[in-house]
Fold 6-phospho-beta-glucosidase.
Amino acid sequence: MGFRKDFLWGGATAANQCEGGYNLDGRGLANVDVVPIGQDRFPIITGKMKAFDFDDEHFYPAKEAIDMYHHFKEDIALFAEMGFKTYRMSIAWSRIFPQGDEKEPNEAGLKFYEDVFKECRKYNIEPLVTITHFDCPMHLIKEYGAWRSRELVGFYENLCRVIFNRYKGLVKYWLTFNEINMILHAPFMGAGLYFEEGDNVEQVKYQAAHHELLASAIATKIAHEVDPENQVGCMLAAGNYYPYTPNPKDVWAGMQADRDNYFFIDVQSRGEYPAYALKELERQGIEIKMEEGDKELLKEHTVDFISFSYYSSRVMSTDPEVNDKTAGNIFASLKNPYLEASEWGWQIDPLGLRITMNALYDRYQKPLFIVENGLGAVDTPDENGYVEDDYRIEYLREHVAAMKDAVEQDGVDLLGYTTWGCIDLVSAGTGEMKKRYGFIYVDRDNDGNGTLKRSKKKSFDWYKQVIASNGENLD
Ligand code: BG6
């Protein structure tokens, strides 16, 4: 048994965390460029502090990142050496439409990604493309208030039409919005939302979410029209909630917290607002403005597969005495006393991956794709840039074993697995380079110093052997 013969092993990155070249060849500015490293990052990504441009006081790691803009051939060759079957990456919207609302795209931006996809194809690597990985052109934020405006749906549609036509035959797998539920937790980074004094924050977030959900359905429709071979997925920041105790109140609270996140995928996969969400929105006095035809679009153009990121499970309690928190992927959780944690406090729970996979598969009955999983850690390279990252191998081994159980023992249909940050890149949460995920070390530090030289870590050869054995050899 084991994984399917055509299992898509690979790695994942996002444009803003690796490309750099923020102002090259006509690229416009985006929200992801202006989020600095340091203590202001969190207030900015959550939309509480305004940052619409650069200033002299901050360092902006995305400006250059690891300069994949100029290194992509070298990087893809290394991915190919590991045996990647797929490479998950994102396009930067503002490279293709610098302002976001133009009619005609920027040819230089289109050409750049065409070159990247062709480079992948040269090695039989299937590109898996995230259309929006947290980025929104700055002009759309300043002029339209980003996704709070319905006009964004049309601009996104235009982007999709252009890329689906241009990359027909080169790209088949698409994800519409990275971690769409992040709009609730990091609204500026996730959807370009900045809140003015007096804004009804929840109302704005859910209206913006409706626009994204609609845009996602329209993208799915066009993708299928342009090329019936196209496969479109949604993308969830996943990780199930566990109740802290068997107290039914904890169980109920955990279920509700899961639903806050499932809500988006319920719409994208099942095609309608779920009953529990309609009731909750009503209770909160949130009114979603819909136009004629919206419901039909959502219903008729559901996704082909469910993709998600998984780093950790989460814990929920209703007891005010239970308040020992630990960091997690943007939103913090209570500490689970049964689990160890990474250096950044993210708790490590391989069985939680199997639990999450089963919960998603039971709920949607569509193929799953794990498009992010990995360990952010401090690496100490020797003089040749070699890192003995046994801790990373250990983390990945256990997670691959758990996903194998979900496939073999539970019958979950899994299309592929792309580890997060297959090459070291800028952290989305903290802006650090020090928090490394890669099989490939990149010589660059938090302040932007370093030669950008790439070198293989110990995990490079380990992953190569995992792929070569289609997940049979994890030693
Ligand atoms: C996910 C994002 O939230 O987690 C990635 O899709 C991000 O962009 C990854 O990098 C890991 O988070 P962090 O904060 O360690 O970079």
